[in-house]
Design goal:
Helices cover about 30% and strands about 25% of the residues. By secondary structure, it is α/β, with parallel strands linked by helices. The structure holds ligand LLP.
Length: about 425
């Protein structure tokens, strides 16, 4: 009935997540509140891992893309489930280290890594640095030398694939700030340059074509193009590539109109393409790396709010305001992303009115759902916005000096705080 499989309704007509009554969670922990279903996160991790074992004989590794929701908690779960990590900043590296993550299973991304971040990556024992550009390559070689190591690297390649998704999250085409392009020879040149440096060793190639993509074909095309590049590297430079990292980007269901493919199907299809290409081109079968973020955590999360005032503007629009908004979920204001909402304390009631759910920030675009067809919403209701587990907490801000909500993880029938609610004191902690 709802967009995520872990949601249901109990005998009190309350929305449940796993076995937990969301109205009780809101009462106990306060709102706004992020709730993460740990059982579903683990299930999603296993789905990917098992598919890699089944379709690619375990000769691959699934990395959880930490940017979707980075915390000690999520790093620990990814580790317990045998996944690696994709990190994209010094802060994400630091979090992974503090969570006790095995750093050799980490790939470090980013289009403008600083010298300090590269030094931290090397000192932390990050498995691969995914080099974005020539400037970074030279800087990394120097920092690796200073640290007395040879750092394993991959290159971020723009395979020239146009994935059908929001332009802000499209990254595979030549006009992108990420990586080096194949079609103008840039990728080849940087590989040639790397082959002459003493303190980096190019073991892999990487691409990531975008995010929230439903169509499997662009992923398949990207895998084909990357295998062709692997052949070119072997033929022209004698470099044998060990790892093929195909990034993340698999779409999830935010509304009933979204129709995602089961995630193991990507691995099934891509395994065949890579195996066939390796045979055809006479190159070594690469170890495959994938980096799903959203599809692991988004469906597992919901956000609970308390409904405040209603504003019925005759012949214009009805606004319903909640006690959170763009601070905890900036995805509408950034991408006009669509969500599904449920009145948690009357979960089965039939929709009767069209309302716009607004946040409490001093910003007209601070909206969570525009023109949503909902049951009559009353002041004091608990509103659940669904599928908020990715790119919500991790993209949250303190705009208007609003403190970030707590994150509660539920598993079976129990709930625990995994990130504390911020306090006013937290808000001024760094003010001098
Ligand atoms: N690997 C790389 C190199 C990436 O840049 C990303 C996401 C991923 C993996 C994970 O992609 P996913 O499986 O989560 O789609 N803030 C945007 C999404 C930005 C994605 C950035 N890169 C949003 O809220 O939709």
């Amino acid at each position: 009935m709802f967009v995520s499989e872990n949601l249901g309704v109990n005998e009190k007509n309350h929305l449940i997540i796993g076995k937990n009554d969301t109205v009780e969670l809101a009462k106990k922990f306060g709102t706004p509140l992020y709730v993460m279903d740990e059982d579903l996160i683990r299930k999603n991790c296993r789905l990917y891992k098992n598919a890699m074992d089944k379709y690619y004989d375990g000769k691959g590794l699934v990395l959880y893309a930490n940017k979707a929701f980075c915390s000690l908690y999520t790093c620990r779960i990814a580790n317990e489930e045998g996944l690696g990590l994709d990190v994209v900043s010094g802060g994400e590296i630091y979090t992974a280290v503090k969570a006790g993550f095995p750093m050799e299973k980490v790939c470090f991304h980013g289009n403008n890594k600083t010298a300090d971040e590269l030094d931290l990556a090397i000192k932390s024992g990050v498995g691969h640095v995914v080099v974005d550009n020539i400037y970074e390559l030279e800087m990394l070689d120097k920092i690796a030398a200073e640290n007395g190591v040879v750092q394993k690297i991959m290159f971020r390649i723009k395979p020239g694939i146009d994935a059908h998704t929001h332009s802000f999250v499209q990254t595979g085409q030549i006009d992108s700030k990420f990586g080096v392009a194949l079609e103008n020879g840039e990728a080849f040149e940087i590989a040639e340059k790397a082959s002459k440096l003493a303190n980096v060793r190019m073991t892999g190639v990487h691409c990531h074509i975008g995010s929230q993509i439903f169509d499997i074909e662009p992923f398949c095309k990207a895998a084909e193009v990357m295998m062709e590049f692997i052949k070119e590297l072997k033929d022209k430079l004698g470099i044998e590539i060990d790892e093929l990292n195909l990034g993340g980007g698999y779409g999830i269901r935010y509304t009933e109109n979204d129709d995602p493919i089961e995630y193991d199907k990507y691995i099934e299809r891509i395994s065949v393409i890579v195996k066939d290409a390796a045979k055809k081109y006479g190159v070594k079968l690469p170890f495959i790396i994938m980096e799903p973020g959203r599809s692991i955590v988004a469906p597992a999360g919901i956000t609970l709010y308390t409904v405040g005032g209603r504003k019925e503007i005759k012949d214009v629009r009805t606004y319903v305001s909640v006690d959170g908004g763009m601070g905890d979920n900036p995805r509408y204001i950034m991408y006009e992303s669509e969500y599904t909402a449920v009145i948690a304390n009357r979960a089965n009631e039939k929709p009767t009115e069209t309302v716009t759910i607004a946040g409490k920030c001093c910003e007209s675009g601070d909206i969570l759902l525009k023109d949503a067809y909902m049951p009559k919403i009353e002041v004091g209701d608990t509103l659940a916005v669904l599928a908020t587990g990715a790119y919500n907490y991790s993209m949250s801000s303190n705009y208007n000096r609003i403190a970030r909500p707590a994150v509660v993880a539920v598993s079976g029938g129990s709930a625990k705080i995994v990130i504390k609610r911020e306090t006013y004191e937290d808000l001024i902690r760094n003010d001098m």
